[in-house]
Amino acid sequence: MVRTQIQLPKDVYERARELCRSREISLAELARRGLEYILSVYAPLPGAGGAWQPPAPRRLGWKGLTDAALKEEAQRTATETSIARLGQG
Fold it and tell me: What is the pTM of this model?
């Protein structure tokens, strides 16, 4: 283990000490657990164990529309949509 020193605002220190008393753990143990949690939640920075890659895209249920049809629908203007609705019914 490495020994280190940190500075905390007084109110943070007091709240941490109270939590340590209630959980019967040391301040060092609380700090270790907190750091381990933060490190597990945040994604590693690029260059720290490999470059970050975005997640692969997923098909989320556009049933009945091909990619081309979906793109066409998305690019249709409000006027074109109104005209198409009038023609259907």
Answer: 0.49
